[in-house]
Amino acid sequence: MQYRHLGSSGIRVSAISLGSWLTFGHATEERVAVKCVRRAFELGINLFDTANVYAEGRAEQVLGKALAPLPRHECVLATKAYFPVGPAPNDRGLSRKHIFEQVHLSLRRLRTDYVDLFQCHRYDKETPLDETLRAIDDLITQGKVLYGGVSMWSAENIADAVRLGRELRLRRLVSNQPQYHILRREIETSGVLEICAREGLGLLVYSPLARGVLTGKYTSIDDVPPDSRAADERGRQFMGPWFSEEGLEKVQQLQVIAEEAGLTLPELAIAWCLRRREVSSAIIGATKVEHVEGNAAAVDVELSDEVVAAIDRVAPA
Question: Rounded to two decimals, what is the model's pTM?
Answer without folding.
Answer: 0.94
